[in-house]
Write a structure and sequence with these properties.
single chain, 356 residues, alpha+beta, nine-stranded mixed beta sheet, 18 strands, 24% helix, binds pyridoxal-5'-phosphate, binds 2-OXO-4-methylpentanoic acid
Length: 356
């Protein structure tokens, strides 16, 4: 694929204090764009100065939400190099989301080339501070000006980058999570396994209620029986019960997280007992009452490994591991981030250095 590069003539000042980055608030100097037209395929791949895009007010994405996205990161190693974590997995998942929303697929090789080209141009924006990284947001939108409900004939594939710190203000400190019993996020047969804006729009009312009660995120239950655990707003969820790592199986309504998959692979390699299965919130509460709920943590690109310190289900508030990060969560966090930031050897073959 040929990618044209147009560099900015007015580069922005880079953040001075990387400890104050927050998440997803500032953007680099460039972005990648490529267009799709039915009959022509993907064309006009280019890296251009970051800036507003122009859309018709009738653009289909604005009305019916035909949109998909990904979330990934570029990390700075101790010797100043830049690397990615399993980036091909993100682009495979983008295509799985694309298939569900009738969006044309993007060859994984082309998407990877776009990623490397953009991050090479903006590599000075990859933070140098521990815990900070360059958050990368690829997305596809349907842009035809048309108000009928049908798949688009014209799309943009765009990648933007945001130097970011921890997703939660609390950093690696445990988060408080609220089990949502009123709203649901997704159902089997719906779009729960895709990364599409609508899933996040559906999550806002629950999240708003959680925030009002001083909880940072919602733990979703299944949409049919309201008893099986699904996932959290921006991460998958894992439990350590009596020495066994348990996480909900992938059955169509939760996102197949790349961090989730990696953590399961690591723990299996370490010889831990690992189960992907249906698990009810009642089972978690019973394990808590029996003193067997050792650790709870979320996994995600933005969230990394986020220990859960409090889990509220109805009137019951479970304080997990004394609201402190547990040994297993800490070991997983250290190993994952060690590999991602190039401080530990990549024994799993997950790291992809930035092509120069
Ligand atoms: N679940 C949801 C709803 C998410 O938004 C995310 C974040 O991408 C995850 C899980 C974790 O997925 P991953 O580990 O691939 O980032
Ligand atoms: C990610 O972890 O990359 C996500 O997409 C979470 C996000 C919704 C902030």
């Amino acid at each position: 694929m040929e990618i044209r590069i147009e560099r900015t003539t007015t580069p922005k000042a880079k953040p001075v204090d990387e400890s104050q980055l927050g998440f997803g608030k500032i953007f680099t100097d460039h972005m990648f764009i490529m267009e799709y037209d039915t009959g022509k395929g993907w064309h006009d791949a280019r890296v251009v100065p970051y800036g507003d895009i122009s859309l018709s007010p009738a653009a289909m994405v604005l009305h019916y939400g035909q949109e998909i996205f990904e979330g990934m990161k570029a990390y700075r190693t101790p010797d100043g190099e830049v690397q990615f974590f399993r980036p091909e997995e993100n682009f495979k998942r983008l295509n799985s989301s694309a298939e569900r929303l009738i969006i044309p697929e993007i060859p994984v090789e082309d998407a990877l080339q776009a990623l490397h080209t953009l991050v090479e141009v903006d590599k000075d924006w990859v933070p140098h501070t521990d815990g900070a990284s360059l958050y990368i947001r690829p997305f596809v939108i349907a842009v035809d000006p048309f108000l009928g409900v049908r798949p688009g004939d014209k799309y943009y594939f765009i990648i933007i980058c945001s130097p970011s710190g921890a997703y939660y203000a609390s950093g690696l400190n445990p988060v408080s999570i609220y089990v949502e019993t009123n709203y649901v996020r997704a159902v089997k047969g719906g779009m729960g396994y895709t990364k599409t804006g609508g899933n996040y729009a559906a999550s806002l009312a629950g999240q708003d209620e959680a925030h009002k009660q001083n909880y940072s995120q919602v733990l979703w239950l299944d949409g049919v029986e309201r008893k099986y655990i699904e996932e959290v707003g921006a991460m998958n969820i894992m439990f350590v019960i009596d020495g066994e790592l348990v996480t909900p199986e992938l059955q169509g309504s939760i996102l197949p997280g790349i961090t989730r998959k990696s953590v399961l692979e690591l723990c299996r390699k370490w010889g831990m007992k690992v189960s992907e299965r249906r698990i009810t919130i009642q089972e978690v509460a019973d394990a808590y009452d029996a003193g067997k709920l050792q650790e709870v943590f979320g996994t995600g690109t933005a969230a990394v490994i986020s220990p859960v310190g409090h889990l509220k289900w109805g009137d019951k508030v479970m304080e997990i591991n004394g609201n402190k990060i547990g040994d297993i969560s800490q070991k997983i966090y250290d190993t994952m981030t060690g590999m991602q930031y190039g401080k530990l050897a990549d024994e799993m073959g997950w790291i992809v250095p930035l092509k120069k």
